[in-house]
Amino acid sequence: MAGRLQRPLVAVACLFLCCLVGVRCGPDPRLRKELMELEESMQTGGGMVLTEAEQRLDALLAKLKQDEMSRKDFPPSMHFFTARRLIQASPLFRLLQKMPKGGVLHVHDFAMVDVEWLVKNATYRPHCYMCFTDSASVRFVFASQGPKPLERCSAWVLLESLRSEAGNATDLDNSIRGNLTLFMDRDPEKEFPSQDVVWNRFEAAFGALWGLVTFAPVFRDYYIEALNQFYADNVMYLELRALLPQLYELDGSSHDRAWTLQAYQDLTKQFVSTHPDFYGARIIFTNHRHAKLSVVAAAVKEAMHLKKDFPDFLAGFDLVGREDQGRTLWYFRDALTLPAEKGVALPYFFHAGETDVEGTEVDQNLLDALLLNTSRIGHGFALQRHPVAKDLSRKRGVAVEVCPISNQVLKLVKDLRNHPAAALMMENHPLVISSDDPAMFGSCALSFDFYEAFVGFGGLKSHIGSLKQLAVNSIRFSSLTAKQQEEALVLWQRRWSEFVAEN
Ligand SMILES: *[C@@H]1O[C@H](CO)[C@@H](O)[C@H](O)[C@H]1NC(C)=O
Ligand SMILES: *[C@@H]1O[C@H](CO)[C@@H](O)[C@H](O)[C@H]1NC(C)=O
Ligand SMILES: *[C@@H]1O[C@H](CO)[C@@H](O)[C@H](O)[C@H]1NC(C)=O
Ligand SMILES: *[C@@H]1O[C@H](CO)[C@@H](O)[C@H](O)[C@H]1NC(C)=O
Ligand SMILES: [Zn+2]
């Protein structure tokens, strides 16, 4: 890079010199071109050498992107709930859907599958009870002997009866759907005026879907459905942040965490055996950051055990929940240093910097995540304000998991052209694109987030090399071993070449 920088810099120096001695001054078009090329070469994928076929596809991509940019209703500038329909109809989006995108490294266990599936499949199973809470939300449980009363939610009704009483279940199903996702047809800016409002609804939605997805039979089908949806979106690998809750059966009995992890592993193997071009999945065990120190310490110890029992399937550990309201990494430092003290390798994948408040203890999470040797940074929205953390992240190859739609819906950024990852992408900072909680945002799998990244903060300069680099990054920055990464890349490259040849 130094060598490449030198020539233009020497030229700039000459330019000044010429002005000093009174020679005719003016920007040198040759120098201008060189500087522009230099800048372009520094971006994500800027160093990619493209084949002829890739250059041909790039010309098509550039044209399609230009079409998107010249429309009055430019989707990345709008709230995703409003933009979704427009994006779906765009030819560029359809091309991105077909593109092999590599892995999804930041997605949460119970927000992966389109809620339509939960409404039409899960809640239509026998023995499904629903209850209205004091706060206008709902709870679900499957129980052969009828459910036990819950705190703040005691009047359970069998959904089957409720539906047959109603005759026409459309309204009921709509209200159930409304409780399980943030997505809505009404004006989202009015509905969610602040971060507090949207986060409350977000957490309420998790409360509502909890009893559905922790029912063991639904859990299994939900996970397979998730793999189906990601696979259909041309994603070949997942790293899934999972709470590993106790799953329950119809008779009220329940299973422990290891059982849940085993179920994930078995289902993944089963899926891979029938989808040989899908590489697999790994789990990042997560705990809520609202928990007390002792609870997180116990979770870290359990994670250490699980890592020993599932060395190739459990990737590591993370803390989840709203960063601005939860406890800081520094608060949990004694729990989080347990593995290092015991000489156990437990990789971390911390959410950090998912905030727009500067200078608080929470804002410190980014640097603390790096001090705790995090392998990647979830969101890193605040990274631009932390030059030291940013430098460390770059030098150590600690990739930032950028989730554009999540950041917009949860009100960190309004217009996705202004997402801070724009600058990260212009300097090829280690990063991947991910979707966080697609079902909560009315999104699906990964392509919508790729669209927002490529058309929104990628600007006109990002090109097919950028897309290729992002896909390669998602394997390079995964928790897979070097040998597995090579295997996955071979699989991906084959699909990529087909994609380039066919489009
Ligand atoms: C739900 O999906 C599962 C798995 O795809 C299927 O076997 C089952 O019949 C479906 N149930 C309902 C009620 O749609
Ligand atoms: C059920 O109700 C919805 C909305 O209330 C209506 O749009 C739909 O046509 C009704 N379906 C039937 C079969 O009556
Ligand atoms: C949640 O369900 C309740 C009960 O059916 C309903 O009154 C409420 O409007 C629903 N909430 C949303 C956000 O759809
Ligand atoms: C982080 O890595 C350094 C250097 O390898 C090590 O000394 C330190 O104990 C690690 N800290 C944690 C919390 O794992
Ligand atoms: Zn997340």
Name the CATH superfamily classification of the largest domain: Metal-dependent hydrolases
Share of β-strand residues: 5-15%
Number of helices: 22
Largest sheet: 4 strands, parallel
Report the average pLDDT across residues: 94
Give the number of domains: 3
Shape: globular
Over all CA atoms, what is the radius of gyration? 24 Å
Span of the ends, CA to CA: 34 Å
Structural class: alpha/beta
Low-pLDDT stretches are none
Reported CATH architecture of the largest domain: Alpha-Beta Barrel
Strand order of the largest sheet: 1-5-6-7
Count of distinct strands: 11
Task: State the helical fraction.
Answer: 40-55%
Descriptive overview:
The protein is an alpha/beta fold and 503 residues long. The chain folds into 3 domains: 1-21 and 28-41, no CATH class; 83-113 and 216-502, Metal-dependent hydrolases (TIM Barrel, Alpha-Beta Barrel); 116-201, no CATH class. Helix content is 50%, strand content 11%. Strands 1-5-6-7 form a 4-stranded parallel beta sheet. Strands 8-9-10-11 form a 4-stranded parallel beta sheet. It has a 3-stranded antiparallel beta sheet with strand order 3-2-4. Helix 13 (293-309) links the parallel strand 6 and strand 7 (314-320). The longest helix has 21 residues, at 482-502. The model has no long low-confidence stretch (mean pLDDT 94). The structure holds 2-acetamido-2-deoxy-beta-D-glucopyranose (NAG) (4 copies) and zinc ion. The site of one 2-acetamido-2-deoxy-beta-D-glucopyranose (NAG) has 4 residues, from loops.
